[in-house]
Every structure is written in structure tokens, then in C-alpha cells.
Design goal:
The protein contains two helices and no strands. The protein is mainly α and 88 residues long.
């Protein structure tokens, strides 16, 4: 009787160890996945920042080459906004 009980305990602990091993493996997979997602987000952020800087430089150059276009555009927008506000 004691032998059967001892064997059941061994089976239980063997199964428990198997579960722990699988959990450890899944933990490693999850850590790798999180690392991969983090790297992807960082790459996307870096590309977005680079694109924003490029666009800002392009706009800056355009404004310096053609300042009156932007001055007139801003004046027109201000005028139209004033007309819209006055009607309300």
C-alpha cells in the first residue's frame, strides 16, 4: 500500500516538473516575443522621427526660398477664419 502511495507521489511530482519545464519554455518564448515587439516599436519610432526631421527640413528650406507664399497663405487663412467667426 505504501509503495502505491509513493509511486503516486512520484508521478505527481514528475507531472508537476513537466508543467514547470513547459512554463519555463513558454516564459522564454514570451520574453523573446516581447523583446522583438519592443525592437519593432523602436525601429518604427526611429523611422518616424527621421521622416519628421526630413519633412521639417524640407518645409524650412521651402519657407526660406519662398517666404511670401507662406506669408500670403497665412494671411488668407486668417482672413477666412475671421469671416467664419464673424458670421456666427
Amino acid at each position: 500500500m505504501a509503495h502505491k502511495k509513493h509511486r503516486k507521489h512520484e508521478e505527481f511530482y514528475a507531472a508537476l516538473q513537466k508543467i514547470r519545464d513547459r512554463a519555463d519554455a513558454k516564459e522564454e518564448e514570451l520574453i523573446d516575443l516581447i523583446g522583438s515587439v519592443y525592437e519593432s516599436v523602436q525601429d518604427t519610432k526611429d523611422k518616424a522621427i527621421e521622416k519628421i526631421h526630413d519633412t521639417a527640413n524640407t518645409v524650412n528650406t521651402s519657407v526660406h526660398l519662398h517666404p511670401w507664399h507662406y506669408i500670403c497663405g497665412a494671411a488668407l487663412i486668417g482672413f477666412l477664419a475671421g469671416l467664419c467667426k464673424r458670421r456666427k
